[in-house]
Every structure is written in structure tokens, then in C-alpha cells.
User: Which sequence fits this backbone?
């Protein structure tokens, strides 16, 4: 489904819960990157990266976390980019977006 559309993500999550009754593991790995430097980057590139890398991660966790908590045990694995540590090779959005995605589990896990 389109990870940038919360309604589609929620519908897919509901279908998963209905069919399988459990969510034991959630692995997120959707990603988008661009090497455009900020002075040459169209702002739509920034928005696309935020929508896919950050919002998409939050959307799928949000859509499934209630089921996962009610089970008493489940795992969330977020696969992010090493650009948070190494830089994005000239692009501007890799580090903040990946860093935001990777900080999501702490908030979810606190529940």
C-alpha cells in the first residue's frame, strides 16, 4: 500500500489483524533519498522524504501498536539508513529523517 497515506496503511493493518489475529513482528524499511544539495533541492523532495521515511514509519506503527500491546508481546524493527551516522553524500534530508524514524520505537515502547 501507499505508506504515505494513513487511511490506506490503516486499512491494510486492519486486514492483517482480521486475517492473522496477531502481529508478532513489525519490520519497517520504506525509504527514499535524494542527493540534491539544499540550494538545488525542490522542497517537494524534502516533503517526499518526510512522508515516506518518517510519516510512513509512524503510520504503520500507529496502525498496529494497539494490537501489539494487547497481545502482551511483540517486536518492532525499524531499518534505517546509515546516513544518520555518515551523511548522505550531498543530500540534505537523510540524516534528520532517518534520525526521526529511529527515535520512534522509544516512544512506542514506552506504552
Assistant:
Amino acid at each position: 500500500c501507499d505508506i504515505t497515506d494513513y487511511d490506506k496503511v490503516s486499512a491494510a493493518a486492519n486486514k492483517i489483524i482480521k486475517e492473522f489475529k496477531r502481529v508478532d513482528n513489525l519490520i519497517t524499511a520504506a525509504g527514499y533519498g535524494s542527493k540534491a544539495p539544499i540550494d538545488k533541492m525542490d522542497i517537494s523532495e524534502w516533503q517526499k522524504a518526510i512522508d515516506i521515511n518518517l510519516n510512513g514509519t509512524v503510520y504503520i506503527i500507529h496502525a498496529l501498536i494497539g494490537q501489539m500491546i494487547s497481545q502482551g508481546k511483540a517486536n518492532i524493527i525499524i531499518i534505517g539508513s546509515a546516513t544518520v551516522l555518515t551523511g548522505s553524500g550531498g543530500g540534505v534530508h537523510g540524516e534528520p529523517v532517518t534520525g526521526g524514524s529511529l527515535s520512534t520505537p522509544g516512544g512506542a515502547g514506552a506504552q
